[in-house]
Specification:
The chain has helices at about 55-60, 90-105, 120-130, 150-165, 170-180, 190-195, 225, 230-235, 255-260, 275-280, 280-295; strands spanning about 15-20, 25-35, 40-45, 70-75, 115-120, 140-145, 170, 200, 210, 240-245, 265-270, 305. It is an alpha/beta fold.
């Protein structure tokens, strides 16, 4: 059973890993990439996750007949990224990080085609960067399982949710087991590559425990700022837009009206949890590829996918 829970390495999913300095070398961001030609998908992970949350999706993208490139990074205070200040998780700071990082990787003023893909907190950052006008060549924006209204309404319950999460594990396999049994992750492969990257050996080496890399409660002062005004920022982005949700009950009033007006494509996956890219990587990859293939899809009616790729 242990082998079925053992961590999977990053290089089974990405071609390259590197550390990229920004902010005059004060901050060094862990970056993963794949592909050499075609439009670039730039991936923004959610709070507490890392770039490995996209791993299975990336492998499916790279196996597609449609040429594409992928860039995924660990944001500040997450994963392998090391920053001078780990306390500032504001939307403004993360937006500036992403703008600088994309310029460092792609080149200042690069105009090649880019599609932004963001999950939860990362979707807020992706939307802000897209609307800033500071990155050229953006043709699409995919937001995964977050909308302003429901995010703001759920903030009061976030601490209770976090308090229920174990603070330590006996091993990486133990953490993977928890993620599957708690339904935090629904696919074994995604859990085996994503969950181990979110933990590290406990600072107290006498404990022989593994603990979370990121203390989500330390980000609480920024939660409201991530999502306030997000719906209008999303709708104002002058690019093709897709919203992927695990349930239509997550839609707020502004987005419900906008979706009925055909301002973005809505895809609903009711069998998925919050982390759609891990629960149904196949549908996620198909959705992203549709963006760069310029597939003309009616947007007035939501697409409801009744099963996940377990």
């Amino acid at each position: 059973m242990t082998s079925e829970l053992s961590p999977l390495p990053w290089d089974k999913f990405f071609s390259e890993k590197r550390d990229v300095p920004i902010n005059a070398g004060k901050d060094v961001f862990r970056v993963y990439s794949s592909g050499t030609e075609g439009p670039m998908f730039i991936m923004f992970h959610g709070g507490g996750y890392t770039a490995m949350t996209w791993a299975v999706v990336i492998r499916k993208l790279q196996r597609s007949s449609t040429p594409n490139r992928v860039l995924a990074f660990d944001c500040r205070a997450h994963g392998g990224t090391v920053t001078e200040d780990i306390s500032d998780m504001s939307l403004e700071k993360q937006t500036d990080d992403a703008v600088q990082l994309i310029a460092a990787v792609c080149g200042e003023g690069d105009t090649s085609e880019k599609v932004f893909v963001g999950h939860s907190m990362g979707a807020a950052v992706a939307t802000a960067v897209c609307g800033s006008g500071k990155v050229k060549g953006i043709t699409g924006l995919v937001v995964i399982d977050v909308v302003e209204g429901t995010a703001m309404a759920s903030l009061s319950a976030m601490q209770l949710y976090i308090d229920k999460i174990p603070t330590s594990f006996n091993s990486a396999e133990d953490a993977v087991r928890w993620s599957l049994t708690s339904r935090s992750a629904k696919t074994r492969k995604a859990a085996r590559v994503s969950t181990p990257d979110r933990i590290q050996p406990a600072p107290d080496t006498t404990l022989s425990k593994w603990v979370w890399r990121t203390d989500l409660l330390r980000t609480e002062p920024y939660w409201r700022g991530w999502y306030q005004g997000m719906s209008q920022r999303f709708l104002a982005c002058p690019v093709r837009k897709v919203l992927m949700l695990a349930g239509t009950d997550r839609l707020d009033t502004a987005l419900t009206i906008a979706q009925m007006q055909g301002k973005f494509r809505l895809i609903v996956l009711p069998d998925c949890g919050h982390c759609i890219q891990e629960d149904d990587p196949q549908k996620t990859a198909e959705t992203l590829l549709d963006m760069v293939r310029k597939v003309v899809i009616p947007v007035r009616m939501p697409v409801v996918v009744q099963h996940a790729a377990y």
